[in-house]
Amino acid sequence: MKSLSVFATLLGLLAAGPCSALSTVTLPVDFKPPPVFKNTNLVHVISVEKSYAKEQINVLVENVASEPQAEYFLPFTAGQIARVGGLEAKDRKDDTIGPFAVDLVEYDGSNDVQYYRITLPTPLKAGGQYPLAISWYYLDSYRPLPASIAQDEQQYLVYDFSLYAPSAYPTLKQKTEVKFSTVNIPDYTTTTGPGGKEYPEKLGSKMLYGPFDEQPAGAYFPAQVRFEFTKPVIHVETLERDIEVSHWGGNVAFEERYTLLHRGANLSSLFNRVKWAQSQFFQPATMALKELKVPLQVGSVDPYFIDTIGNVSTSRFRSSKREAMLELKPRYPVFGGWKYPFTIGWNTNAANVLRTTASGGHVLKVPFLEGPKQVEGVEYGEVNVRVLLPEGSENVKFYTSIPDSSIVETSIGVHKTYLDTAGRTAVTIKAKNLVDEHRFRDLVISYETPLMGTLRKPLVIFASMLAVYAAAWAVGKVQVGFSSK
């Protein structure tokens, strides 16, 4: 929002309508995706480089029906559907086209196969082809093997997947690529392809399977990889993010409450603090979480860091014209299976994130998700964002670039705080299964504040103080004592 063109773009997004929770399409119990497409060529890319798995399908889709088609279905198992997050579909050759509309199909809860429906921007004519890019994340992706290790041992994780990409349509040609953050991959599935060629082909920290011959719809080839991951597996069960806007104070206050869990291998014996202190002199690779780095918006001030015990002093804040970095060190190193709940907060000048429109309204632009930025990545099971606007705000509209497939609930209500009368307008957005790659996706809110709404609080304070003074004057006039008669 630093230029007029960006500001105009934000207003255009708001004019298009507020964001909404992921829509669910109800279909007959015996629903099966119509066989109107085939995948002419498909590349399945799997990344296990972070605490979560990311999968992407780059596919050339062909309409084999006699009429134009616009609905492409993507299947998941019932176990996968609860862990899928951030599903987006775009034009593979042009990133500016998309993301496309994504709906969760509801037809038979007892069926092991569930579907997402992707709606193309324009129906694909008969015989036509379209380059489609679909990406999503799996939370709770891995299991440690062994499940328990010593304090100074290396951690290994296992990921189960299919060599054939999930598809409701036949695929003529496909290959699968698996990316790692290490070259230490002791165990993996092997197979033989056309001509007797053995797969996978190893290229450093990458494995290539295929190309495979034509496969029918729903084809599945179970595979597994076990790889070294000497980093923490960071999972945030719940993040509650509050943003409070104050016009009179010219300030926007942020507070984030985390329930953090390490999903890596548990300790096979009790934690040895002496051994841990000794190891810090030579800084070995460890799966323990020792620190968190939280980049904030430039201009952020007054940070704080507390946990269930109280204020945590092991933090550092660096701020300049180019960056604002909050570095946190928990009270103790967090090992596999351990939890660490904590709270951070900070303030920023309202002028950095709030603009006034020509008609006298206001537009607030803040990140939907900030949080730690770690090499190993961070996954979020549930994110609840609440924005408290000034009292009396009305005509509220909001938009976020978080994938629609992850938004589960949105609402506009009222929240009462200190010195409020009617209460503040509160915008609440709940999302699930997000990852740190969604950091700094925009949340844009437009609203208006009528004159009486703006003056309500100072008038109430003035009237209250006047009443106190009048009461004090009246009490002072009362004569207390005994008469001489």
TrEMBL record:
Topology of the protein relative to the lipid bilayer: Single-pass type I membrane protein
Keyword annotations from UniProtKB, A to Z: Endoplasmic reticulum, Membrane, Signal, Transmembrane, Transmembrane helix
Signal peptide: 1-21
Annotated TM spans: 459-476
The keyword Endoplasmic reticulum belongs to this UniProt entry's keyword annotation: yes
Subcellular locations according to the entry: Endoplasmic reticulum membrane
Oligomer status and interactors: Component of the oligosaccharyltransferase (OST) complex.
UniProt xrefs under PANTHER family: DOLICHYL-DIPHOSPHOOLIGOSACCHARIDE--PROTEIN GLYCOSYLTRANSFERASE SUBUNIT 1 (PTHR21049:SF0), RIBOPHORIN I (PTHR21049)
Function: Subunit of the oligosaccharyl transferase (OST) complex that catalyzes the initial transfer of a defined glycan (Glc(3)Man(9)GlcNAc(2) in eukaryotes) from the lipid carrier dolichol-pyrophosphate to an asparagine residue within an Asn-X-Ser/Thr consensus motif in nascent polypeptide chains, the first step in protein N-glycosylation. N-glycosylation occurs cotranslationally and the complex associates with the Sec61 complex at the channel-forming translocon complex that mediates protein translocation across the endoplasmic reticulum (ER). All subunits are required for a maximal enzyme activity.
Name of this protein: Dolichyl-diphosphooligosaccharide--protein glycosyltransferase subunit 1
Species this protein is from: Trichoderma longibrachiatum ATCC 18648
